[in-house]
């Protein structure tokens, strides 16, 4: 996948932040399960029960979330690209080892890019959807709101790591 990617506003959801922290801390908070558990799930909605990440193309991206009632929901995907402190790409459309996924959720491919800006980091999260209907379903389901809350929690967590 090219490093130059232009999001399509009809299909893609983008969140951008400039984080007052070095890129190495942003990368660490994004890729280490012990940090991911602190920010990935909006705290008012639940928690991360388990997380496993094998940062290589074809590696596992697994995050099980537990709702407020304790019911757990597995989220399994596959990394497509991992360039330390620059770019991380994963998809829910494939299982680890590039096996085709079977699931009943709306699939996405996520692209995270980061670059140093002064002493901080420009962080961009982009979620690619198959079509406009999937994007609208994700927005209506609360997924977009939850993702925005999670990114805010991510920024707070990274700053606390300084």
Automatic annotation (TrEMBL):
Name of the protein: Activator of Hsp90 ATPase homologue 1/2-like C-terminal domain-containing protein
Domain of life: Bacteria
Signal peptide bounds: none
InterPro entries: ASHA1/2-like_C, START-like_dom_sf
UniProt domain Activator of Hsp90 ATPase homologue 1/2-like C-terminal: residue ranges: 20-156
UniProt xrefs under SUPFAM superfamilies: Bet v1-like
Source organism per UniProt: Usitatibacter palustris
The family this protein is said to belong to: Belongs to the AHA1 family.
